[in-house]
Amino acid sequence: MPVTGEVVALRRHVRGALVGEPGANLTQGRQWMQDPRYPIGKAQIGEEPLAGAQRAELIELVARAPAELRAVVAGLTDAQLDTPYREGGWTVCQLAHHVPDSHMNAYVRFRLALTEDEPTIKPYLEARWADLPDARTLPVEPSLQLLEALHERWVTLLRAMTPEQFGRAFVHPERGRRMTLDQTLQLYAWHGRHHVAHVRVLRERMGW
Ligand code: NI
Description:
Elements: H1 5-15, H2 31-34, H3 52-73, H4 78-81, H5 92-115, H6 126-130, H7 133-137, H8 141-160, H9 163-166, E1 169-172, E2 177-180, H10 181-206
Antiparallel strand pairs: 1-2
């Protein structure tokens, strides 16, 4: 089945967020500040293992994500929730459903990498997931609760992991490279804040 332009654009949005890929280093510059897709810039993902203090800081960011998402959508009307965060972008509601979609996949990738020897993970087409009936019709509350429950388990796991376990890896078949759990932690600590910032910037711009 041909991939739609929207899917390509959204997948590029995620791929471009990874350091070491074409275009990733462009995001160091001023364009970041002007690109509404990247209100907090792109993810900074290093090749080296993290120090323990860095890891603890990133785990705290993951732990705070559900409360931050809940807070940033609080008080919005249905019409506001149905507003795209930028021209052609996802609505606030779609963003709220996307974050648990993404983090469920991330959580599974952690569990696979911890229990198998460099497993090849299964990518997913996030734009098509965002277009399925539950993501199109449900209010944000079920996804906020899903994210809270998911992060309770995920953060419990992260806090119990040893440095050696953070060095374990999976293989992403589309990127054709291994990604350690240290790198995955960096990506997802960024990812929650990235989408929360989309809503925050929209609210600031609209005076909501
Ligand atoms: Ni995303």
